[in-house]
């Protein structure tokens, strides 16, 4: 019998800065009412799909933490172990954090903003440590000796995420646990790039919608049985493969 491992990826529900079209990055922004509803629906979809998680991994940001709490409650799995790591945080958007995308486009132009958002190895301008949105003195990082980056490219995100994948998430999968990762657009894009062996050009076209679970069944080598995974939708609308949506990844 073929051995499969079940991995569920979930981008947090809509946050206040998703709704306001502002760059969030590592800024700790809460969910909107829409985001909370998305999180609840995602938990119901996970339950309907029979993909009940045994363990969950989240970032240190409240929009992911709250999404995980709501989704697990809706799925009846509020009691499972939860692990949190800064390595699952969203990409640090540097000096763009807190700014509206419209203002940034006006200032720098659409072409430059697209490079910052969609390229693999080009980071936005660095933020100075004294700026209000730098997180330089945030206790969740400062007290743990974590060096907060002044900015990150997608490549930087992948470099700091993959060690956590290998040391914390892979052991859960290989032990036969169904794993739920609740994280952020760019963190999940970097993991999907690794899982699906995507090229730099391919990943530039991938955007992950908020509050929509994606199921990956992985083989013994932890490669996807269905490339791109399967979006979990209501049973009457169940997808057979991944349908990437044009959703902003912030």
Automatic annotation (TrEMBL):
<comment type="similarity">
    <text>Belongs to the phosphoglycerate mutase family. BPG-dependent PGAM subfamily.</text>
</comment>
<dbReference type="Pfam" id="PF00300">
    <property type="entry name" value="His_Phos_1"/>
</dbReference>
<dbReference type="GO" id="GO:0004619">
    <property type="term" value="F:phosphoglycerate mutase activity"/>
</dbReference>
<comment type="function">
    <text>Catalyzes the interconversion of 2-phosphoglycerate and 3-phosphoglycerate.</text>
</comment>
<dbReference type="InterPro" id="IPR001345">
    <property type="entry name" value="PG/BPGM_mutase_AS"/>
</dbReference>
<feature type="binding site">
    <location>
        <begin position="90"/>
        <end position="93"/>
    </location>
    <ligand>
        <name>substrate</name>
    </ligand>
</feature>
<dbReference type="InterPro" id="IPR013078">
    <property type="entry name" value="His_Pase_superF_clade-1"/>
</dbReference>
<feature type="binding site">
    <location>
        <begin position="117"/>
        <end position="118"/>
    </location>
    <ligand>
        <name>substrate</name>
    </ligand>
</feature>
<dbReference type="InterPro" id="IPR029033">
    <property type="entry name" value="His_PPase_superfam"/>
</dbReference>
<keyword id="KW-0413">Isomerase</keyword>
<feature type="binding site">
    <location>
        <begin position="11"/>
        <end position="18"/>
    </location>
    <ligand>
        <name>substrate</name>
    </ligand>
</feature>
<protein>
    <recommendedName>
        <fullName>2,3-bisphosphoglycerate-dependent phosphoglycerate mutase</fullName>
        <ecNumber>5.4.2.11</ecNumber>
    </recommendedName>
</protein>
<feature type="binding site">
    <location>
        <begin position="185"/>
        <end position="186"/>
    </location>
    <ligand>
        <name>substrate</name>
    </ligand>
</feature>
<keyword id="KW-0312">Gluconeogenesis</keyword>
<dbReference type="InterPro" id="IPR005952">
    <property type="entry name" value="Phosphogly_mut1"/>
</dbReference>
<comment type="pathway">
    <text>Carbohydrate degradation; glycolysis; pyruvate from D-glyceraldehyde 3-phosphate: step 3/5.</text>
</comment>
<feature type="binding site">
    <location>
        <position position="63"/>
    </location>
    <ligand>
        <name>substrate</name>
    </ligand>
</feature>
<feature type="active site" description="Tele-phosphohistidine intermediate">
    <location>
        <position position="12"/>
    </location>
</feature>
<feature type="active site" description="Proton donor/acceptor">
    <location>
        <position position="90"/>
    </location>
</feature>
<feature type="site" description="Transition state stabilizer">
    <location>
        <position position="184"/>
    </location>
</feature>
<keyword id="KW-0324">Glycolysis</keyword>
């Amino acid at each position: 019998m073929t051995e499969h491992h079940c991995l569920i990826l979930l981008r947090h529900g809509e946050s206040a800065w998703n709704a306001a079209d502002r760059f969030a990055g590592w800024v700790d922004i809460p969910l909107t009412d829409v985001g909370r509803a998305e999180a609840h629906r995602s938990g119901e979809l996970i339950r309907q799909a029979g993909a009940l998680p045994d363990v969950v991994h989240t970032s240190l940001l409240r929009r992911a933490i709250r999404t995980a709490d709501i989704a697990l409650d809706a799925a009846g799995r509020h009691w499972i172990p939860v692990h949190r790591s800064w390595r699952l945080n969203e990409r640090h958007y540097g000096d763009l954090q807190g700014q509206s995308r419209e203002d940034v486009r006006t200032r720098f132009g659409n072409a430059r903003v697209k490079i910052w958002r969609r390229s693999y190895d080009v980071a936005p301008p660095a933020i100075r440590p004294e700026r209000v949105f730098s997180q330089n003195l945030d206790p969740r990082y400062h007290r743990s000796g974590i060096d907060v980056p002044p900015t990150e490219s997608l490549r930087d995100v992948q470099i700091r995420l993959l060690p956590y994948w290998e040391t914390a998430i892979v052991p859960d999968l290989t032990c036969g646990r169904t794993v739920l990762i609740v994280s952020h657009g760019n963190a999940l894009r970097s993991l999907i790039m690794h899982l699906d062996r995507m090229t730099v050009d391919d990943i530039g076209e991938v955007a992950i919608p908020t509050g929509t679970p994606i199921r990956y069944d992985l083989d013994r080598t932890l490669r996807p049985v269905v490339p791109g995974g399967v979006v979990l939708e209501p049973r009457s609308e169940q997808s057979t493969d991944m349908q990437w949506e044009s959703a902003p990844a912030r």
